[in-house]
Amino acid sequence: MIAAVGFLAILVALFSSGWLVIAGIRASQATPADPRGLKIPAIGLAAGGVIAFLSLELAILTHDFTIAYVAKNTAIATPFVFLLAAGWAALEGSVVLWGLMLSVFTWLVWRGVKKGDGLGVLALAVMGAVAVFWFGLMATVANPFAICTEVGNGLCSATSWLPIGDAVAPADGIGPNPLLANHILMAVHPPLLYVGYVGFTVPFAFAISALVRSERSKVWLDRTHRWSLVAWIFLTAGILLGGWWSYEVLGWGGYWAWDPVENAALLPWIAGTAFIHSAIVQRRRSMLQAWNFVLVIITFALTIFGTFLTRSGVVASVHAFSLSAVGPALLIFLGIILFGSLGLFAMRASTVASSPRLESLLSREGFILFNSLLMTLFGFTIIFGTMYPLLVEAFTGREVSVGRPFFDRVAVPIAFLALLAIGTGATAPWRVETGKVLWQRTRVGLNVGFIAAALAVVLGVRSVSIVAIVGLAGFVIANIVAFYVHQASRSHNGGRPWPSALLSTVRNDMGYWGGQISHIGITLAVVAIATTSVLAIRTEVPLAVGETAIIDDYCVEYLEPFSRVEPERNVFGARVAVLDRSCSDVRAVLEPRLHEYTKFGQVIATPSVWTTWVDDVYLNIAATNEDGIRLKVLVFPLQWLLWVGGLVIVAGGVLALGRKPRKRTPTSNQGDKRKHADA
Amino acid sequence: MWLIVPLVASLVIVVGLWPTDQVTADPEARAYNLAVRLKCPICAGESLAGSQTDLAKNLRLLIDEEIAGGSTDDEIVALFVANYGEQVLLDPPRSGWGVALWVVPLSIAVVGGVAVYGLKRKERDSPEVPS
């Protein structure tokens, strides 16, 4: 019953999205463009997407094992949170979540489209076309509501694609993949990432609409900048939570492994970041129009490419949880997007491109262009490195691997250059920065940077790369803070008391200052990435109950083992005290555990972490034997700074969302004012 | 005045970081650095350092033993390549096809740089067009 309702909802959404495409194209050709005919398909699409998602969740929560997806991915004993998360944890469910978001976003865009808005009407048609693909997937190769027609060995052994006919149900389902049901973060991480992925559909749709209509203006950017920013914020948060999950759950003691699927999430983030920045240049300086079209097309294509990498299994990855015919379908869709969009762009490039008016590389736009090219290079290198094993195998038949050492080596110089450009460019004036202004706006940072680096050396850091990155971080952050104080002091000199001057400076340009907060966040995160990878201590010690071992500035003592039975898993743990170096003062008691998922025959080591201002002590059980345990002890300096830095990046993005619309009057606008101020 | 601080600080940094006596790398750090560079042969894209499989655990012990036995890093890597083939290297050798991995991105960087320079030049040569 639920299966039939859900499947019907998918068909309704599919039909509505097709209708939206046709009605949107026709409405955009009328003058003035009339969006009235789009009401029914837009609402139909949203209703279909919502009902399909709710049906799947309802089926999961009521343990309707006649539905193959439910029987495969949940079990009666699955805890509530992971039941909810099972709605998107596996392939078909993740497509349903994608469809839900896309249909709701389309509805939100439709609500903002008024009569005469040809750009918006055609953008809705583009979103409809994207929705045709996703709901088409659900109706064919990724049907979440396929029913179980035969039960063998307690499992669903045969399925029927159409949810009609005699359904049978196994007594219990298999349950979620233990790796995905081991930590609450895994329930939150994918939806965040998906809001980011799907959100970039909106600027893409408006860009295609503007290209088709040969619109030169920046209207498409003005109307989608919030969408891009929201998508970017969620993508950032999703990636960070993914890293945090890896750190807290996987037990190898890291948050990023340059796995192909991690790269798949990072790539749209890199392209999206470049797009958001270069969109600012177009909105302020009417430059880089063509480049913005290319960047938004690439960003959207990379969200599909990422999903393809995750779901097709063409590249070996720990994340490639499921393989199916969805892979080829995604590849075809990706091909259509790339050839279609870039072909359209090539046809229209001459009409939409701005005349290049880069007056000086030494200017705000010059630095943004530099970093956006740097990000493009970075993204290209990641794609090339990820696909390189496939290419080599295709041409020579030899099997090779490309992994973390390669990507690390590429990322380090790029991070240095990007930070340097952020620190210099974020406070540079538009158009032209004279040497004098450059010196005025970077001398504080230069001094603070050198002091910070020297301080790191005095405090005992002997790694050249850490000293360099600390100096660079001091440079970036001090420049931004100094510029902030400088701007606020002008407001203060105008008669405002300091608190009000500081506040109003931010409130007058929340987009800019939100961006600066994100820049500070990324700088902090880079410092943490450097300290946790270069200065980490990793060791493994055998411990019997009552024994101690000294590691770095700590002493660990194995207090006692414990075990308990939880739903779906057996827990074996070790209670371990972390003491000071002299082994006399207990600082914390940690409980690293082994989770045994009997049904899957899988044992997952779950680490336990103690965080201080200086470092994280990370304990994980490597092995157990009759004498005791082999305990992995890892110490990561400043690990917390990564998560705090990430939070600051997201907070800056949120602040930028609240930017006050700039009031434009014929005689004065903010751009001119700043230009005068800069002179 | 603004230059005194950087000068003094550079002096501190250079003196502090000046390489003094040869520090022998701690065997556990060496083992980890090797495990990061080697792929777990049966895993999907995980390094020996990242994988929790029994094989990876045993191979990590093998690295420890080799280091304890006095093998150099290159010898240990060669041992793994001999046993598991070139695909065990997560950082392909920079010879033969491996060159492409570096040459292609670098040439893109050069092309990008030239393009921006061209953009700048074009501007200088042509009179400003009001938009």
What is the element layout, followed by pairings?
The complex is a heterodimer of chains A (679) and B (131).
Chain A: H1 2-29, H2 39-61, H3 68-73, H4 80-89, H5 91-111, H6 118-139, E1 147-152, E2 155-160, H7 185-199, H8 201-212, H9 219-250, H10 260-285, H11 289-312, H12 326-352, H13 364-396, H14 404-425, H15 435-458, H16 464-493, H17 498-508, H18 510-534, E3 537-543, E4 548-551, E5 554-566, E6 569-580, E7 586-590, E8 593-597, E9 602-606, E10 608-611, E11 615-625, E12 628-637, H19 639-657, H20 670-678
Antiparallel strand pairs in A: 1-2, 3-12, 4-5, 5-6, 6-7, 6-8, 8-9, 10-11, 11-12
Helix pairs in contact in A: 1-2, 1-6, 2-4, 2-5, 4-5, 4-7, 5-6, 5-7, 6-8, 7-9, 8-9, 8-11, 9-10, 9-19, 10-11, 10-13, 11-12, 13-14, 14-16, 15-16, 16-17, 16-18, 18-19
Chain B: H1 4-17, H2 27-37, H3 54-68, H4 73-84, H5 98-125
Helix pairs in contact in B: 2-3
Distance N to C terminus of chain A: 71 Å
* Overall morphology of chain A: flat
- Low-confidence spans of chain B: pLDDT under 50, at least 5 residues? 127-131
User: What percentage of residues of chain A falls in helices of 4 or more residues?
Assistant: 55-70%
Mean pLDDT of chain A: 89
Let me know the largest β-sheet of chain A. 6 strands, antiparallel
Oligomer: heterodimer
Show the largest interface: A-B, 64 and 52 residues
In short:
The complex is a heterodimer of chains A (679) and B (131). Chain A is of the alpha+beta class and 679 residues long. Helices cover 62% and strands 13% of the residues of chain A.
